[in-house]
Specification:
alpha+beta; Ubiquitin-like (UB roll); Cathepsin D, subunit A, domain 1; Helicase, Ruva Protein, domain 3; 6-stranded mixed beta barrel; 5-stranded mixed beta sheet; 14 helices; 39% helix; hydrolase; Protein DNA-DAMAGE INDUCIBLE 1; aspartyl protease; polyubiquitin modification-dependent protein binding
């Protein structure tokens, strides 16, 4: 049979029960529907309070009858302690906190559904708890507003062009949100920072952390690094130009051959020399191909010479922080052909070759003037190294926001 129960806050709950059901079991069903504990309920029928052991048929309850659920005095006191202000904060935060702490079921649900709130309930900072309650209240209001907007759009005039555009945007956003939620569940690694691939190498006997980058056309060494390795004396300036990728850097020339040591074996390598302060050594696609390298991400090693040497990729803790900027110096289009047709013409036409490679209308240098210096000072005040700030601004052609995001992300 069906009975209706009116709660103390004037809600009506319909229950489908057996005529011989006990009052205690009815209270258990109401606990599920109202979250009011069985022991805090008082059921009344025809003005009389029912005992837990009573049977519905025994006290005259029939199909379609109505009962009333009242709260015990202790329960009403608890409800007073749970009252919230219009902004969502608790009227009595200490009592609110204590009440939730004393309810194991509520705490278990909070730990699963809202860990920050459960931590605030278990903590000692009542201001933090109040702020979280206000934040959750705003989230509920925002969710309710969106629901109301969706309902309004669904009932809008189908011939209203603006309404249909809003419906289309809402459907598209819903698809994006669902895709994001699926990514959080099935591909959470996509939201983490990816550690780039570095290995230990020696260049002309000097140990270096080499950035392995199959997306860079050429193997690159900075001017300072080449000088430290004793190779700058071999620089061929006939191969000057401009490297364009994320930002741009000046190509000073090439070092045609020098020994590098990977693992226990030595290999011949050629380098493009860049005037880049924060990029040290980048092992590019040209040498990866030449030495038949295999980037083995399953075993997390770089195999050289078809597998004759294997060296592990470095963990993030082993990568010096000052070379993280190197990860964003990608060189995808470096002109590597000889600047002239013959050796005699090469020497004569080095200047014209350099101008030819620089004829791609590179953007104006942003590193001069008071505006650039103001941007530098603003980012330095945030705690970043001045050289790192300058390099980041150059990488993003003076865009202060992109440079700041890059520095924070590094």
């Amino acid at each position: 049979m069906k009975i209706t129960v009116m709660t103390s806050d004037e809600q009506f709950i319909t229950l489908d029960v057996d005529p011989d059901e006990s009052v205690e079991n009815v209270k258990a069903l109401l606990e599920v529907e109202t979250t009011v504990s069985l022991h805090q309920q008082k059921l009344h029928f025809n003005g009389k309070e029912l005992n837990n052991s009573d049977r519905l048929s025994g006290v005259g309850v029939k199909d379609g009858d109505m009962m009333m659920m009242m709260l015990s005095v202790a329960s009403r006191a608890n409800n007073d302690s749970l009252r919230l202000n219009p902004d969502g904060s608790a009227v009595n935060p200490s009592a609110f906190q204590q009440h939730i702490r004393n309810d194991p079921q509520s705490m278990a649900r909070l730990v699963q559904a809202d860990p920050p709130m459960s931590q605030a309930i278990l903590g000692d900072d009542l201001d933090k708890l109040q702020n979280l309650l206000r934040e959750r209240h705003q989230q509920r209001l925002e969710y309710q507003r969106k629901q109301e907007e969706e309902l309004a759009l669904m009932s809008a005039d189908p011939f209203d062009v603006e309404a249909q555009k809003k419906i289309e945007a809402a459907i598209r956003q819903k698809g994006i949100d669902e895709n994001w939620e699926a990514a959080l569940e099935y591909n959470p690694e996509a939201f983490a920072r990816v550690v780039m691939l570095y290995v230990d190498m020696e260049v002309n006997g000097i140990p270096l952390k080499a950035f392995v980058d199959s997306g860079a056309q050429s193997t690159i060494i900075s001017k300072n690094c080449a000088e430290r390795c004793g190779l700058l004396r071999l620089l061929d300036q006939r191969y000057k130009g401009v490297a364009v990728g994320v930002g741009q850097s000046e190509i000073l020339g090439r070092i045609h051959v020098a020994p590098i040591k990977i693992g226990h074996l030595f290999y011949h390598c050629s380098f493009t020399v860049l005037d880049a302060q924060n990029m040290e050594f980048l092992f590019g696609l040209d040498m990866l191909r030449k030495h038949q390298c295999i980037i083995d991400l399953k075993e997390n090693v770089l195999r050289v010479g078809g597998g004759e040497v294997s060296v592990p990729f470095l963990q993030e803790k082993d990568i010096p922080s000052q070379i993280h900027l190197e990860e964003n110096v990608k060189q995808h289009a470096l002109g590597q052909g000889p600047p002239a047709e013959s050796s005699r013409a090469q020497s004569k036409n080095a200047g014209s070759a350099s101008r030819s490679q620089n004829s791609g209308n590179p953007q104006r240098d942003q590193s001069q003037g008071p505006d650039f210096e103001a941007k530098v000072m603003k980012l330095v005040e945030l705690g970043f190294d001045r050289n790192a700030v300058i390099q980041a601004l150059k990488l993003f052609n003076g865009n202060e926001e992109q440079a700041a995001g890059f520095l924070f992300g590094g």
